[in-house]
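Exam revision sheet. Question 4 asks you to relate a sequence to its structure. Input first:
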Amino acid sequence: MSESKITDWNQYGIQTQSIRAGQHRTPENEHSDPIFVTSSYVFDSAHQAQARFAGEQPGNIYSRFTNPTVRTFEERLAAMEGGERCLGIASGMAAIMSFCMGVLKAGDHVVCSRSVFGNTMGLFKNFMAKFGVETSFVALTDLNAWEAAIRPQTRFLFLETPSNPLTELVDIEALADLAHGKDCLLVVDNCFCTPALQKPIDLGADVVVHSATKYLDGQGRCVGGALVGPENLLQQEIFPFLRTGGAAMSPFNAWVFLAGLETLAIRMRAHCDNALKLARWLEDHPRIERVYYPGLASHPQYELAQRQQSGAGGIVSFDVRGGREAAWKLIDHTRLLSITANLGDVKTTITHPATTTHGRLSPEDRQRAGISEGLVRVSVGLEDIQDIIADLERGL
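Answer key, structure tokens:
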């Protein structure tokens, strides 16, 4: 394949990176990104095959861990996040699992935000514990709690900011300084913001996690995940597990994600505009007890959001007066909105976190995470905002 004329994408803006970075045209000289739907590759000789398998010569071997379409996705997302390397992985949860399996060993310790996706908490609490890894859960916004939880055995700090579903934020730069001062890595799930709104690596984070299923795709078509971080860390510690463990990203899915990335920056601005209008309407509604959205001045970390993010994102959560009964009534009366736990779609989705995304947590864990029975999460899509509001008004 021909090499790209551009070797340093850091000098370009994110919209240009999202369209151009990572593309290496084949001898066919195609203009769009091609898809390589092949499981294996043919070698010129037995010697070349030996050299490829031994790692002595670069090149494709097997699509479980080397595929040109996946590689284009990896190079493009790495450029957008400002990281040295990206690994495309089968799902967002597989990305977190691959990082843990590559970095951790029995006796290690992790400090994790209490305000994370329910399955993320379950991975640390129920499964990593089986391998002798202990996890301490702390309040996302309490830097003193983070510091107090760190031990000599702590390998990394893990968090989402904004968090799912309450959109809480933490000062990434301050937490990065704390982590590095204790010889720990800082791992940030950037799913809600994407690099279009927030760049954790620029703020000091070591590794960024993505569920590409969400905003990176943007249309709810495929499942995938990614890790972005230092070349040495990802190549030496994570890639060997990915190669052996088999959590491979499908080339077709990578090709779909490439199309999604092309419009990411534009879509995220539109999501932010709609979400802010919805949040302001909800805040004035008598049936709503509280609204959680970083773009509102009433949000506890509003000033931090203004400083750390270029937009407040597309997720709006709110407590409905009347608990679960009122929340379910609201959800069941919608006609336009999609009742699904997925998010980051151009179609607006609505869910009840206490019985879906966080339903497998114990009532005590849900209470500690602030997940009430009246909480509703809306991933605000790109429909006409008045139609979204009218659909919610029907149930309120």
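Marking note for examiners. The chain has a mean pLDDT of 95.
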